[in-house]
Amino acid sequence: MSEAERRARWTVRELLAWTSERFAALGIDEARVDAEHLLARSLGCARIDLYVQHDRLLDEDDRAGFRELVRRRLAREPVAYIEGSKGFHALDLDLVVDRRVLVPRPETEHLVDWLLESLRPAPAPLMHILDVGTGSGAIALAVAKARYEVQVTAVDASEEALAVARHNAERLGLDDRVTCVRGDLLDGVALPPAGFDAIAANLPYIPSAELDRLQPEVRDWEPRAALDGGPDGLVYVRRLIDAVAEGEALRPGGRLFLEIGVDQAQAVEQLLRDRAFADVQSRLDYARIPRVVSGARPE
Question: What does each C-alpha distance from 289 to 6, 164, 217, 260, 284 come to in angstroms?
Answer without folding.
Answer: 50, 29, 21, 10, 5
